[in-house]
Amino acid sequence: MAFWQILLTHAVGVLFAVAQDHDVKAGRIHQSAKAMLQVKANSAASLQGSVRGMGLGSAQILLSEMKSLIDTKGSSGIDPEEQEHMQSIRDAIDSSIIPGIYDEVADMVDEIQALYEAILECQTRVTTDYTAIMDLEKHVTTWKEEHEECRSTEEFWYKKMVKECMEYHEFQSGIHIPGDMPRIEGDDDQLLEWLDLMSDYFCPIYETWEEHWQECVETEKNYTKLIETCNKTQVEYEEAFCNLRVELIGVCKTFESCWKSAVETYNNRKDSLMELIETLKKEYESAVEVKCLWESWIYEVEPCTVNETKVKTCYEIKPNTTNITIVWPPLPEPEPCDLTPVEIYPCEEEFIQDNYISLGLDPVIVAQMKDHCNACVEFLEEKPDTSLMDAEDSGESRFMFQNMEKSGADLFVKQAGQAAAFDAFAVSECKQQVTSFSFKALSTQKTIMVGLTASQDDSQDFAHGVMLEMKPDQKLVISGDTHSRIYQQGDIFTLYVSGTSIKAMKGKKIIHEWKNRAERPYLYPKIWIYDKGANLQVTDYLPAANAVECEAKM
Which of 217, 530, 148 is nearest to 365 (CA)? Predict the structure, then answer.
């Protein structure tokens, strides 16, 4: 085989590989942005390898050989067989190399757009999530208004109690036997006369005393009852505020992470693609110059020689590469994620001033609110490597849901269903069963069950497992245990498998052991939520290595 045939076969082989690579990418162009970016990255790397696999690239090799042929045979001429090979080179340039460069540039533009849109998607997502979460602010406002109204009523009964009880005590302290009251002397008739006189004096006093006493007792009873009611309302208000704060901070942290990752990916790919576009420009320039030099041969005469003037023009005039130049869109500035609504939160001095002292209520009522303030628990600690967020970022779903969602900071929230019913649950997928499962109590006024079970279909009775139930007024129920227990907001519980037993911990203390209740070394974590809007935070999650067994069941 002649040298030109070997060269052309090699070049066209590379070009066909590039063209095939373009066809594959074209078929994937409408995939999701994330998948598309991966395909683009792989394809770009593939093309880069193809272009550089022959050194300077296929077009540059053909240009080098064309120049060599002009130098050696430009004046003496080439034979018909060499002319035929020259035509094959021209055909390869027109049909494969230049179209392949155009296709690759178009694909790069698509990739840049996908990278850019991935950044914008972070902004779109945070705007949507932020707006949805701010709907919770209405719930906070409702509890705030109810609390203020309750405290105002409490002040009324406090002042009334003070007034009535003061009148009662003042009246009582003024009761005394007059100094000129006659003594008891003589016979029964005189005693009867004395008693009659005492009745005339003391009976009206008793009636008045009893009236004052009943008013004092009644107002004190109403006031005491209102203290309890208002304290509970304050807990609901402050917990609703703290939950809003957790949700907003979670959204903002997620946005910050999304934005940082998308921008970093964009900039990293930009560096690679800018290097690649320069390589493609050189290929394009070489291809255009090959075409120009091909046209410099005078094919109509024998021997076939070159037009020196035309050759000189081809060497001097640089091809226009505007049509393969990429314009990089400037990156937008991230819109701020506004945490202003929750910057000041329960029990901080400024919060107490703005929300309690500013009401202008009696100092006793203000002291009540201060003493019963419930500070926000910091729910957003650093998560371990087994965080649920890590699994979702990898495209892997760990839980199945009914009327429940998982939002920022690993919060499981009942978003749908009835206002008060066990119709919302979350349960892990088979591959994500656990050996231990930890969670935090975000409220002491909601009803939530958390358990480990051998069956995904277990109802609230957890027939194939065990559970902890957090109920209103700090009541903690442990399945199979009749003892009365309590819990507090912020308490962290852990359920874990230990041999054939399952153990429950509150903090670092074991509070119960269910012997022979673990049917296997790994179980499904399942969450049931009764109250709409209630939520639970998962703080730790240790998956079991049972993926092989799950695969076998599928």
Answer: 148
Least confident interval from 46-55, 74-83, 150-159, 239-248? 46-55
pLDDT at 384 over 70: no
Q: Which residue shows structure tokens 């021209």?
A: 90
Length of the chain: 554
Can you give the pLDDT at residue 450? 97
CA distance 462 to 127: 39
Provide the residue type at 334 as one letter: P
Q: Are residues 319 and 410 in the same domain?
A: no
**C-alpha–C-alpha distance, residues 107 and 40, integer Å:** 8
Residues 6+ apart with CB under 8 A from 28: 35, 36, 39
Mean pLDDT of 218-224: 90
The whole-angstrom separation of Cα 539 and Cα 382 is 9
**Domain assignment of residue 157, yes or no:** no
**Beta strand 475-478 pairing with 485-486:** antiparallel
pLDDT band for 469, please (50, 70, 90 cuts).
very high
Q: Is residue 527 part of a domain?
A: yes
Q: Return d(Cα 6, Cα 123) in angstroms, integer.
A: 54
Mark whether 320 and 462 lie in a shared domain. Answer: no
Q: Provide the domain limits for residue 42.
A: 3-136+262-324
Is the domain of 122 the same as that of 270? yes
- Short-list 360, 365, 368, 373, CA closest to 158: 365
Dihedral angle sign, alpha carbons of residues 132, 137, 139, 142: negative
The CATH number of the domain holding residue 476 is: 2.60.120.920
Record the tokens describing residue 532, joined without a space.
């709409």
Distance set, CA 35 to CA 19, 24, 29, 265, 395 (Å): 21, 14, 10, 14, 11
Phi-psi region of 121 (alpha: psi -120 to 50; beta: other; left: phi over 0): alpha
Residues 430 and 539 in one domain: yes
pLDDT digit string, tens, across residues 250-292: 888 888 888 888 899 889 888 888 888 888 999 999 899 999 9
pLDDT at 202 over 80: no
Radius of gyration of the chain (CA): 42
State how many domains the chain has: 2
Amino acid making up residue 120? L
pTM given for the model: 0.53
